[in-house]
Amino acid sequence: MPVPSSAYGHQGAPSCFDRIKVGFMMGFCVGMASGALFGGFSALRYGLRGRELFSTVGKTMIQGGGTFGTFMSIGTGIRC
Amino acid sequence: MDQGVDVIAKDAWSPQYPDLNQMDYAMWDSYAEVYMGCPWRIMEDCGGAFSMGAIGGSLFHGIKGFRNAPSGNYRRLISSFVTLKERAPIVGGNFAVWGGLFSAIDCSMVYMRKKEDPWNSITSGALTGAILSVRNGTGAIIGSAVIGGVLLALIEGFGILFTSFTAEQFNPANRMMEEDPNVSGQQIPFLFVFTILSGVVHYILHNL
């Protein structure tokens, strides 16, 4: 019988590291999305267009994803 | 509204939970107490948010202090430590304020609305943002409320997405190979995580 894949990769109770990984993943997703939204709006308001706009928004997205992911992994880490 | 309950209730809130749609008022009170730990969750979230902010703040401000220092390894270390010491508790405090207020509003919403759905947290996030910037004028209030609401909506959406993603293994076809659904079904207490993460808004607003 094939083992169904999950975010944790295996059956049974997930280990602490697995939780932290999923926490980081979720934080990264949220951070990317919010970075795209808020960074995009503020860059547009600042008057950036074209290539500049994309590079700025991309940077904001990565930054937000990293920040959110780090905090989220810490948040799940202190809980397990 | 019922939709949200269903989405969350599918896997993590497995059979030991009561049917949310069939409960009367008295049952909702005990539900909030037993399953959400309600009055005490506020303290718990406050403390958890503080620790998280303090740890994350030490990380980020340690790096910042290290980079913002005169040359020389010793001086870099000293600067890193000084910045960390000054700033990390502030970040922790910001997180704690956010998490505590958020949790308090969330619990109040469970008591008042007799419902448990993503709108609770979204509204709580917006209200928290609004309340925390109430001294900065109408524009700031609206801005923070929008940011809080959007962020919490994002978190809720990704939470539901992740929950349904990790719940794939619990569909009826695979049910038989599952020994203990209570242990492996509930991976992360998502409500707590939402609460905690909401503190990040404050950090982002002040530092980026």
UniProtKB/TrEMBL annotation, chain A:
Pfam families cross-referenced by the UniProt entry: Romo1
GO CC terms of this entry: TIM23 mitochondrial import inner membrane translocase complex
Keyword entries, A-Z: Membrane, Transmembrane, Transmembrane helix
Any one GO BP annotation for this protein: protein insertion into mitochondrial inner membrane
Coiled-coil spans in chain: none
Membrane spanning residue stretches: 20-44
Localization per Swiss-Prot or TrEMBL: Membrane
InterPro entries in the cross-refs: Romo1/Mgr2
Job of this protein: Induces production of reactive oxygen species (ROS) which are necessary for cell proliferation. May play a role in inducing oxidative DNA damage and replicative senescence. May play a role in the coordination of mitochondrial morphology and cell proliferation. Has antibacterial activity against a variety of bacteria including S.aureus, P.aeruginosa and M.tuberculosis. Acts by inducing bacterial membrane breakage.
Homology family: Belongs to the MGR2 family.
Name of the molecule in the record: Reactive oxygen species modulator 1
Species, as recorded: Elysia chlorotica (Eastern emerald elysia)
UniProtKB/TrEMBL annotation, chain B:
One GO biological process term: protein import into mitochondrial matrix
GO cellular component: TIM23 mitochondrial import inner membrane translocase complex
Predominant location category: mitochondrion
Membrane topology, from the record: Multi-pass membrane protein
A matching Pfam family: Tim17
Keyword field: Membrane, Mitochondrion, Mitochondrion inner membrane, Protein transport, Translocation, Transmembrane, Transmembrane helix, Transport
GO molecular function: protein transmembrane transporter activity
The UniProt record lists the keyword Transmembrane helix: yes
Residues spanning the membrane: 141-167, 187-205
Subcellular localization, as worded in the UniProt entry: Mitochondrion inner membrane
Family that this chain belongs to: Belongs to the Tim17/Tim22/Tim23 family.
Function (record text): Essential component of the TIM23 complex, a complex that mediates the translocation of transit peptide-containing proteins across the mitochondrial inner membrane.
Protein name per the record: Mitochondrial import inner membrane translocase subunit TIM17
Species this protein is from: Elysia marginata
